[in-house]
């Protein structure tokens, strides 16, 4: 069991990582006002990939890059890249806070997918949590009203791809270093971005836009490092709920940087998504604690 100090450290690291990822999204939204999504993903990916290769070289793990050819690692990269394209494209017209909140439905989609496609079983309360979470998405998207925009479905598509990505990630062998998985994901996204140059008109990069992309590359890597460190030696069920700090940070950045504040209906939707996710994590943790206890009593 983790010590109280280790848990506090993990929580602080997760909040920091979530804040950094919110900053990464803000950099993407700033950049998309100047260049198309494919150019953002390509250039940001190139900068991040160079940094990751340097980190692997510093650690003496360059030989581990051979694991990048693993089909699961490549598939994860492709899913992440497609998710990024949808999310960044949505940022061109959607508020940062709304987009970030919708993407947080991914854990609920993962749970539902495990039941529908992999034969897992969940109870009525978990299904209700899934329903509440997706109801929150509807409050943000507002279908059937004049406020509805089809672009709002892009973050939802991004969330579903993230859920599928998480399934694939869980099947990647432990022999593959985390940095290699991150590097491969970055490289696949970069390649997809460069391929997008055939269908989108790229624009010359000025220093300001390049600074946005550099900030995006730095925050992308930093966010991964912080969140991975948060889980090391800690119970994921304790640390994971603090991932929802991303929503609060994104709403704050959206208001301060872009002057976009959510309406009361959207705030209600965000609350439902976070409440459903937090309840699901709490319920999962209770089950995880009950099972070992049941085994011990059975052994006695």
From TrEMBL:
It holds the Pfam family EamA. Keywords: Membrane, Transmembrane, Transmembrane helix. The chain crosses the membrane at residues 38-58, 78-96, 102-119, 126-141, 147-164, 176-197, 209-231, 238-258, 264-281. It is found in: Membrane. Residues 9-141 form the EamA domain. InterPro entries: EamA_dom, EmrE-like. Belongs to the drug/metabolite transporter (DMT) superfamily. 10 TMS drug/metabolite exporter (DME) (TC 2.A.7.3) family. PANTHER family: ACYL-MALONYL CONDENSING ENZYME-RELATED (PTHR22911), SOLUTE CARRIER FAMILY 35 MEMBER G1 (PTHR22911:SF6). This is DMT family transporter. It comes from Ancylobacter oerskovii.
């Amino acid at each position: 069991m983790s010590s109280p100090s280790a848990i506090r450290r993990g929580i602080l690291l997760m909040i920091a990582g979530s804040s950094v990822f919110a900053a990464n999204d803000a950099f993407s939204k700033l950049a998309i006002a100047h260049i198309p999504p494919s150019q953002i993903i390509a250039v940001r990916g190139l900068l991040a990939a160079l940094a990751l290769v340097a980190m692997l070289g510093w650690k003496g793990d360059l030989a581990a890059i051979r694991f990048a050819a693993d089909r699961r690692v490549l598939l994860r990269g492709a899913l992440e890249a497609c998710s990024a394209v949808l999310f960044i494209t949505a940022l061109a017209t959607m508020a940062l806070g709304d987009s970030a909140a919708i993407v947080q439905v991914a854990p609920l989609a993962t749970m539902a997918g495990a039941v529908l496609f992999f034969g897992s079983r969940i109870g009525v309360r978990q299904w209700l949590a899934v329903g509440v979470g997706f109801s929150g998405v509807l409050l943000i998207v507002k279908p059937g009203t004049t406020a509805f925009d089809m672009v709002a479905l892009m973050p939802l598509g991004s969330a579903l791809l993230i859920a599928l990505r998480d399934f694939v990630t869980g099947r990647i062998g432990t022999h593959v270093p985390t940095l290699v998985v991150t590097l491969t994901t970055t490289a696949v996204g970069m390649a997809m971005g460069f391929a997008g140059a055939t269908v989108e008109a790229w624009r010359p990069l000025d220093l300001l836009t390049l600074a946005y992309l550099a900030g995006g590359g730095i925050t992308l890597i930093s966010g991964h490092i912080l969140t991975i460190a948060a889980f090391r030696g800690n119970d994921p069920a304790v640390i994971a709920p603090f991932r929802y700090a991303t929503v609060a940070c994104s709403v704050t950045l959206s208001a301060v940087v872009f002057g976009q504040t959510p309406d009361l209906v959207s705030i209600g939707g965000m609350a439902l998504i976070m409440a459903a996710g937090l309840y699901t994590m709490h319920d999962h943790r209770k089950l995880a604690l009950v099972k070992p206890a049941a085994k011990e009593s059975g052994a006695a």
